[in-house]
Design goal:
Layout: H1 11-20, E1 25-31, E2 37-43, H2 47-53, E3 55-58, E4 81-86, E5 92-93, E6 100-108, H3 119-132, E7 136-151, E8 160-163, H4 172-177, H5 179-191, E9 196-201, E10 207-212, E11 215-216, H6 217-237, E12 241-243, E13 257-265, E14 268-269, H7 276-296, H8 302-305, E15 318-320, E16 327-330, E17 340-343, H9 352-369, H10 395-404, H11 406-412, H12 414-432, H13 436-446
Parallel strand pairs: 1-6, 15-16
Antiparallel strand pairs: 1-2, 3-4, 4-6, 5-6, 7-8, 7-10, 7-11, 7-12, 7-13, 9-10, 13-14, 13-17, 16-17
Length: 447
């Protein structure tokens, strides 16, 4: 069997840490086309070897949807093998799972080359494209989630999520009710190197918002994978349930994962007030936004959240501190705050590597073509019917827009786009054939 790559200089450090910290299993994690975080685990006794070879994995798993239904995708059937190859720089112990650690991973061919369907490689390639133009991107996801308990439905239907509380938005009572959980979560995230920025109880019953510090694009996506799994893992250890699904409760506020972005050239933030580069980047986002939505809001459930007057955006517009705009120009916090953009049609059912990679390609396309974003919008766009272009209102519409977007389809490449479209169209069909409770349950369960 061919080795995947030469041992990383950090390998000895990882092996020593694993022994000192009593780690027995190390999870090699990746994100699939359904937005699910999957992986396999190596024992500590085999870790040195597996850091070099990876763990064998069927190619078919990237054709699996979020219901574990395998789709027919050419080159993703029963024949074929890739390797789940961990990135040693991402090694972290999992405080909520004593004895376990994790590393974010790439999917590689047996000769060590990147596999065309690896989503983490897609983001790496987007970062490389930015670097070739002299830019780097800093990013942070701003996730919300619903904290409660998963209980049987008294009527015999699917399990339901019962929120932890019914406190008001930002209410101090909400801080107190969720305090024990929140402290455990913060300590876990900080232990893994994720710097917590802000926390508050949000609008819906049991809804929480906790954000972590921005980072270079790849690290930001890696952080979001760890964040998602830790939010859920800490809750499970406390006999609770946490869901980052866009709309786990049909009649309550949705959970976004707004994406914050800033573009840099050496030490200069290019999204400062009056920047042409910022305007062009926004122009690229808006030009590709209908297609982008298929990747940044990657589930049927996402489109329950994307509606007018929900502060989630329903129109392809931008504006300064406009929380009904798809792209908000954020005011810097204080004299040391950095200007940034906030993409609001974004949630945690998306594969963060595909989502952020596609955003980079769209923004860079705007910069290269010097796309004019038009005038900023300083009102709720829903108050002016017919004046602004609406976002897709369903996953099917978003996938149609993605298929029609030549630039994004080219960036995704033949194998990745074929698998993504097959997986997502299968999910749309599966949920269309069931009642809403089926959809809500499965999104609450998976995300």
């Amino acid at each position: 069997m061919a080795k995947i790559h030469q041992p990383d200089p950090n390998v000895r450090r990882i092996l020593e840490r694993a022994e000192l910290e009593g780690i027995e299993l190390i999870r090699f994690l990746y994100a699939d086309h359904g937005g699910v975080i999957r992986g396999k685990a190596a024992s500590r006794s085999r870790l040195a070897e597996r850091l070099g070879t990876g763990i064998g994995h069927t190619v078919a798993m990237m054709a699996m949807n979020m219901l574990d239904q395998l789709q027919e995708v050419e080159h993703m059937g029963p024949v074929g093998e890739v390797r789940i190859v961990p990135d040693p720089a991402t090694y972290v112990p999992l405080p909520h799972a004593p004895g376990a650690a994790a590393m974010l991973s790439d999917l590689r061919l047996q000769d060590g080359s990147p596999w065309e369907a690896c989503s983490r490689t897609f983001l790496k390639d987007a970062v490389t494209a930015l670097a070739a133009e002299g830019y780097t991107l800093m990013a942070a996801f701003e996730p919300e989630f619903t904290l409660g308990r998963r209980l049987p439905d008294p009527a015999g239907g699917p399990d339901r999520l019962v929120p932890l509380d019914d406190s008001l938005c930002y209410a101090n009572a909400g801080f107190d009710i969720a305090h024990d959980y929140t402290m455990k979560l913060i300590r876990a995230l900080e232990t893994m190197g994720l710097r917590v920025e802000h926390y508050h109880p949000e609008l819906g019953p049991g809804q929480q918002e906790l954000s972590v510090r921005h980072a270079p694009a790849l690290r930001a996506a890696d952080n979001h994978v760890l964040y998602r799994e830790t939010v859920r893992g800490v809750a499970m250890r406390m006999s609770m349930w946490a869901s980052l699904a866009p709309k786990p409760l049909a009649d309550q506020a949705g959970n976004g994962a707004h994406l914050h972005l800033s573009l840099w050239n050496d030490t200069r933030n290019l999204f400062e007030e009056g920047s042409q580069v910022r305007d062009w980047f926004i122009g690229g986002l808006l030009a590709h936004l209908p297609a982008l939505t298929a990747l940044t809001c990657g589930s049927v459930n996402s489109f329950r959240r994307l509606g007018p007057r929900m502060w989630a955006s329903a129109y392809a517009v931008y504006g300064p501190d406009n929380r009904e705009a798809a792209v908000r120009i954020c005011s810097p916090l204080g004299e040391t705050g950095e200007p940034n953009l906030e993409l609001k049609p974004s949630d945690s059912s998306a594969n963060p590597y595909l989502s952020l990679g596609a955003v980079i390609h769209a923004g860079l396309d705007g910069v290269r073509r010097k796309l004019d974003p038009g005038d900023p919008v300083d009102v709720d766009p829903d108050t002016r019917p017919g004046q602004y272009p609406p976002l897709p209102r369903s996953l099917e519409q978003a996938l149609d827009a993605l298929e029609a977007d030549e630039m994004l389809m080219e960036a995704l490449g033949p194998l990745r786009r074929s698998a993504y479209l097959a997986v997502k169209r299968s999910e749309a069909a599966a949920f269309a054939a069931k009642d809403p409770s089926y959809e809500l349950f499965h999104h609450m369960r998976v995300f």
